[in-house]
Design brief:
The protein is mostly helical. The protein has one domain (about 10-59). It has helices spanning about 10-40, 50-59. It is elongated and about 65 Å long. The N and C termini lie far apart (about 70 Å).
């Protein structure tokens, strides 16, 4: 027969939510850093194709 599970405490929920938010913040910072390095042309570990049309407009 099925037995109901115990409730998760508020503190446990808050801890899990905080961990989830910290992971999202780290991912956001990493993505923003990569975008900045690409825009400044300093990226050495990330390869991308530049369109001739886009590069002509930016100059």
């Amino acid at each position: 027969m099925a037995v109901p599970k115990k409730r998760t405490s508020k503190s446990k929920k808050k801890i899990r939510e905080t961990i989830w938010k910290e992971k999202a913040i780290k991912a956001r910072i990493k993505a923003f850093s990569l975008a900045k390095s690409i825009l400044t042309g300093r990226s050495k570990s990330f390869y991308y194709i530049m369109n001739e049309e886009n590069s002509a407009q930016s100059q």
